[in-house]
Amino acid sequence: MEQTEAKEIYQMGVEALNDCDYRMAGAYFKNAAKMNYKPAIAALEKLILEGKYKNVQSKQTLSSNTESKELFEKGVDYYQGRNNTKIDYVKAFECFLSSSIDGYASAMNWLGYCYEYGKGTKKNLDSAFGWYEKAANANVANAIYHLGRLYYDGKGVQQDYNKAFGLFKKACDLRESLAYEYLADCYFYGQGTKINYEKALQFYLKVKPRGVIEYQIGCIYARGLSTGSDYPKAAEHFQKGVDFGHAHSMNNLGALYYNGEGVQKDYNKAFELFKKASDLGNTTAHGWLADCYYYGNGTKKDYQKALQLYLKAKSNGHNEAQIGRIYRDGLGTSVDINKAIEHYQKSIDFGNTDSMISLGILYYEGKGIQQDYQKAFELFKKSSDLENKTAHAWLAECYYYGNGTKKDYQKALQLYLKGNLYGYTQSQIGRIYESGQGVKKNLTEALNWYKKANESGKDCKADIERINNLLNKKPENKSIDKTKVETKANSNKPIKAYEGDKPYIFVSYSHTDSKVVKEVLQMLINQGYRIWFDEGIRAGSSWTENLMNHIKNASHFIFFLSRHSINSKYCLKELRFADRRNKIIIPICIENVNVSDEIDFLLGEVQMLFKNNLEKEEFMEKFNSSNHIEICSR
């Protein structure tokens, strides 16, 4: 009987709705809803959510209307199992709905929650948003928080950090504690407002402690985002996060122990924390744990485990670089240059300047790949432009030797001085000042740098002795001793190659030209020059090594140009090697030839001596004026 009456009242509401009389329609639907007529309840809810029927009670009405409040309290009993009530989400939902229809704002908030999470009804984010908004408009702090959360997460509504921030701030002003964390996040990440770490910290400290909150607080203290780094406080909060079982806190506390920041450095503790976090699937901890295995910190070195963990870890510049090194050097696995290049490139994509150098070195030295000075130069330059000091030195090498770019001794010197100064680079600076390449020749400055290099562990004793002799000796008279020149050039006395520790000249020539070459060598020996040359056939690895060592140890390098030498692969190899080792090259032309672009490039701007066009006296005069040649004479 009641349902028949309710249906008639509902129909009257439908007619009013068709006439757009929303106030009357709502009144009819509300009366039918009180008779528990389902269509009327749904129609009334729709009108309310569309804002066509206002039903929120005023404070005065609310205080006197105990029925809607009792329905709400009964709903909470069913939802939470209070007052010995059995939990029943369906009944809770019905109570909240009836109370909400009656205009009870707190019930609207709970009704929104039921719709959001599908408690006692089907999940409906649109209805959830609508009821939260109704309750928020009635200044229910918890509803304001929930509404902000929907905007923050883009849940059932377009994501809008600005609206979310405003709602969280309003909820916090109303002392809604659940909103503190979200407002802190907005300040921390700059969502809907400017980044303000001080305010973020202020609100995080108000939040009920749990793992992620302690982690955020620890991060603010560790990074000095609020009032400067405070590692002891960071360690304190990370430890609290660890106590909650929070994996990120374990990882960050491990990092503090690993680096000795805010706590006593302890690789063992660091290892334990990284392992615990890694076992919980923390990808950042995988990388730290891999470092422990790679370097043997807190555990034994184990390159296989390190590689496995780096491959599992969160991809970043460091981890990809480490994988590249493992494959390059074959640590715990076979050497795989292609994989090394692949991971170095990934690291470079993250902006890792050390990987730019590592990949550049592979191209520079041609290890496992085609040698490519141009690519090496580009990688060294990219890293150098990002102020990597090691890259400065490698880029200086390129400019010094003309590898991948034109020779530029001025740029080489600037870069050597900017880079990490160690034995080799200090000795290179010394050579530049000694030779006056790209800078004013300065033997005193050269001596200073050779001494620094020697102190750094680079053996420069011979260089120091040579410069000291030059600085302490009077200039030698380089005029020709005609009696020596007139000595028979074709003497049957054997011409012996010099072996010793003093500076000498390495001679590169084609054996086809032996007769002419030995005439010149006889003159040089008669003038007191120390000469080293080969008289055998170039064959065998030991002989090649012998040649290389004698070029390395020589201070000067004579290259006899002829149609035979410029077409000899052995002579060209020697010339290239001498150029890379920065030897002072003296080209002696014994017949007219057209040199290739490569030889022209290698010889650079060095003045050529034309033996075939000069008298003996004039030839020796010019030879004696060669750069620093006096150090090779007795």
Task: Please outline the helices and strands.
Elements: H1 2-18, H2 22-34, H3 38-49, H4 59-64, H5 66-80, H6 89-101, H7 105-117, H8 125-137, H9 141-153, H10 161-173, H11 178-189, H12 197-204, H13 211-223, H14 231-243, H15 247-259, H16 267-279, H17 283-295, H18 303-312, H19 317-329, H20 337-349, H21 353-365, H22 373-385, H23 389-401, H24 409-418, H25 423-435, H26 443-455, H27 461-472, H28 482-485, E1 505-508, H29 514-526, E2 531-532, H30 541-553, E3 556-561, H31 569-580, E4 584-589, H32 597-603, E5 609-610, H33 616-624
Parallel strand pairs: 1-2, 1-3, 3-4, 4-5
Helix pairs in contact: 1-2, 2-3, 5-6, 6-7, 7-8, 8-9, 9-10, 10-11, 11-12, 13-14, 14-15, 15-16, 16-17, 17-18, 18-19, 19-20, 20-21, 21-22, 22-23, 23-24, 24-25, 25-26, 26-27
Provide a quick synopsis of the model.
By secondary structure, this protein is mainly alpha-helical. Helix content is about 60%, strand content about 5%.
Strand content: under 5%
Q: What is the molecular shape? A: elongated
Mean pLDDT: 87
* Major β-sheet strand ordering: 2-1-3-4-5
* Biggest β-sheet description: 5 strands, parallel
Number of continuous helical runs:
33
Low-confidence stretches: 57-64, 476-480, 482-492, 536-541
Please provide a written account of the structure.
The protein has helices spanning 2-18, 22-34, 38-49, 59-64, 66-80, 89-101, 105-117, 125-137, 141-153, 161-173, 178-189, 197-204, 211-223, 231-243, 247-259, 267-279, 283-295, 303-312, 317-329, 337-349, 353-365, 373-385, 389-401, 409-418, 423-435, 443-455, 461-472, 482-485, 514-526, 541-553, 569-580, 597-603, 616-624, and strands at residues 505-508, 531-532, 556-561, 584-589, 609-610. The chain has 634 residues and is mostly helical. It has a 5-stranded parallel β-sheet with strand order 2-1-3-4-5, sandwiched between helices. α32 (597-603) links the parallel β4 (584-589) and β5. The termini are far apart. Mean pLDDT is 87; it is low at 57-64, 476-480, 482-492 and 536-541.
